[in-house]
Amino acid sequence: MQNYKISVVIPSYNHQAYVLNAIESVLTQDWPHIDLIVIDDGSTDRSPQILSDLYLEKGGFRFISRPNKGLIKTLNEGLAIAEGEFFCLLASDDYLPPGSLSSRASSLLENPECVTVFGDALQLTEDKVSSQPVMDAKRRRLFELADPIPEFIRGVNLPIHTLMARTEILINIGGFDLRYQYCEDLDPQLLLYLAGPIKFIDVPVYCLRQHQTNSSRTNRYIARADKVLLYRKYLEEVPQLAPYKKLIRHQLTRQYLLLGRYLSKTRNPSELEKRIFAGALKYCWRDVRLLWHLLSLRLRGIID
Q1: Pair (19, 137) in one structural domain
Q2: Which DSSP string corresponds to the chain?
Q3: 134: containing domain
Q4: What confidence tens digit (pLDDT) does each residue in 246-298 have?
Q5: Which of 19, 73, 186, 205 could disulfide-link 92, Cβ–Cβ 3.0 to 4.6 Å?
């Protein structure tokens, strides 16, 4: 059964202090066939040199270094060249605990009907393990519900880095949507669920570092625009979600409102954010506050 190959993609960006630990945690896994792909996405620190030196000295992985293209394009690049039947991700500032790959791959092999498996994760702050579980009760409940789709739509998401998916299925659902700037974890989990059963194994398969340079922290405001795009996609492009249109419209209106509040307060909104918010006009009837934000932003010349 261990003849199956696992592709692990590490998108490296400005984590010179952590990236070697990430790679080592993959290369020391107990699964015999690992396809490790490390893509440096235009780091401005010493990461490219550190990775190049390690590659020339030890090898054991595929290494690509190039100018910055962004996280989503980097993930899709890794997915496109993945050779393994199974696929998972590892951020360059995190690492895998022992047995991470084998526990997830074994679960997929034992459950051939499942398209993906999720595990738990440990959170670390200054190398101290937090007692706060990543897979809390709300997330675990998704695996017990007969229909978890409403909870996915409401925003209960699963930690994508604990996922191991069948590579072919992940490619078939479109990989990672390029419309999003930073939120690579927004819709693959729901689209994977629509493609087939998902499973949870109650073991830690991922170690998540919390520090001030986490991209999820530094780019948290971008998520407002990304979530608008997410719900528009669910509404307009995913026919399997037609029975949930009322709930999706509610969530879309809410995200438009959050984006409008942000644009009303910030001094330098991006052109993308302004363009996305302009689409709120057709939803103003659902919440008069949206109309107020639109009129206010137009009077101030922020949006056309």
Answers
A1: yes
A2: -TTS-EEEEEEE-S-TTTHHHHHHHHHTSS-S-EEEEEEEE--SSSHHHHHHHHHHHT--SEEEEES---HHHHHHHHHHH--SSEEEE--TT-BPPTTHHHHHHHHHHH-TT-SEEEEEEEEEETTEE-SS-SS-HHHHHTTT-S--HHHHHHT----GGGEEEEHHHHHHTTSS-TT-SS-TTSSHHHHHHHHS-EEEEEEEEEEEEE-TT-HHHHTTTHHHHHHHHHHHHHHHH-GGGGGGHHHHHHHHHHHHHHHHHHHHH-SS--HHHHHHHGGGGGGGGG-HHHHHHHHHHHHTTS--
A3: 6-213
A4: 999 999 999 999 999 888 888 788 888 888 988 888 888 888 888 888 888 88
A5: 19
